[in-house]
Amino acid sequence: MELNTTVTIDEKKSVARVALAGALNTDTAPGFDQELQAVVAQGLDLTVLDMKELDYISSAGLRVIFKAAKQTKAAGHRLAAANRKPHIDKVFEILKALPDMAVFANDQELDDYLDSMQSQVRGD
After folding, report:
1. Which of 104, 69, 110, 70 is nearest to 91 (CA)?
2. Strand 46-57 and strand 78-82: pairing?
3. I need a labelling partner for 31 at 20 to 30 A (CA). Which of 25, 39, 61, 115 fits?
4. CA 69, chain centre distance (Å)
5. Where are the alpha helices (DSSP H) in the chain?
6. What CA–CA distance (Å, rounded) separates 105 from 81?
7. Is the dihedral of CA 47, 31, 57, 1 positive or negative?
8. Which residue ranges form the domains of the chain, and what is each CATH number?
9. 10 Å Cβ neighbour count for 7?
10. Can you give the pLDDT of all 124 residues of the chain as single tens digits?
């Protein structure tokens, strides 16, 4: 599955909206990382990741988002996620509940778990 992104910048309000559609996974994360880094580098007050059309997220996608969150926070800016579908929201809930705990042996085990949880919430 592919990932399509649309970036909209409102310089007057110092806000960037990055709309994601498709899958943010091992294949698409590197390209998204480059695109998101370019947005973050603009130094806007707020970057919003609009996840209304995001169908899947893996650990590789989460790493890109957490990296950007850390960078924006260090620069005194904010990164926000909006319009998360229930199965995407579930992934963020799982990680929020276990912030400092390594529960998976490797990335593949984590991705298998995240895939399973997202499938359950979607009703697949």
Report:
1. 110
2. parallel
3. 115
4. 10
5. 29-40, 59-74, 86-97, 107-122
6. 27
7. positive
8. 3-122 (3.30.750.24)
9. 14
10. 899 999 999 999 999 999 999 999 999 999 999 999 999 999 999 999 999 999 999 989 998 998 998 899 999 999 988 998 998 888 888 777 655 554 555 667 767 877 887 788 778 7
